[in-house]
Amino acid sequence: MMRKKIEPMLKAKVALEAWRGEKTLAQISSEYGVHPNQASQWKQELMQRCAEIFSKPDISGAQQQQELSDKLHRVIGELKVENDWLKKKLSLLG
Asked: Same domain for 94 and 65?
């Protein structure tokens, strides 16, 4: 049996609805098509981790810069290998 992949945004919606307490877990589960235990688990995770949003610095920008830097270094390396190969072939012709 294959597990259903649930998008993070849906998990967040379910967790927030559960946190608000305006509907029962059964109502939320029925509305979003998830098991009540799962909705409860996401609510607990939201409550445990919500402070992290405001306590950690935003590393997404730094992470994007690192990924770009890594990609550029990889391209530079590939170009250097190609350039060295072409120089070798050119010296054999000359």
From this structure: yes
